[in-house]
């Protein structure tokens, strides 16, 4: 078994993923650029909460906001390199969830 060293360096990742909606927003954006309404309708999150979470994730360098100068103006959100680095973590969470969710249902 691998020894797990506990220190404060894990705090940031755990805090980011533990906030309600953050993990799902990041998962959704792993598939590529998305518009606000698309994220909102697919996740079933309120517009106000999505706005708050996106702003926080932008400040943390996880989400990139791109303004596309069309008429009307379009705004697309995507993951930064830092945001994309969550993919392997989320894959492992998915594996864990699938394994234990199935075993508890039987």
Helical amount among residues, as a percent range?
Answer: 55-70%
Which class do the helix and strand fractions yield? alpha+beta
Rg (C-alpha, Å) = 16 Å
The general outline is: globular
CATH architecture: Orthogonal Bundle
Number of domains: 1
The stretches of 5 or more residues where confidence is low (pLDDT under 50) are: none
Structure description:
- This is Transcriptional regulator.
- GO terms for molecular function: DNA binding.
- InterPro entries: HTH_HxlR, WH-like_DNA-bd_sf, WH_DNA-bd_sf.
- Pfam families: HxlR (PF01638).
- The protein has one domain (16-105): Winged helix-like DNA-binding domain superfamily/Winged helix DNA-binding domain (Arc Repressor Mutant, subunit A, Orthogonal Bundle).
- It has helices at residues 11-18, 22-30, 36-43, 47-59, 81-84, 87-105; strands at 34-35, 63-68, 74-79.
- It has a 3-stranded antiparallel beta sheet with strand order 1-3-2.
- Helices cover 58% and strands 13% of the residues.
- It has 106 residues and is α+β, with helices and mostly antiparallel strands.
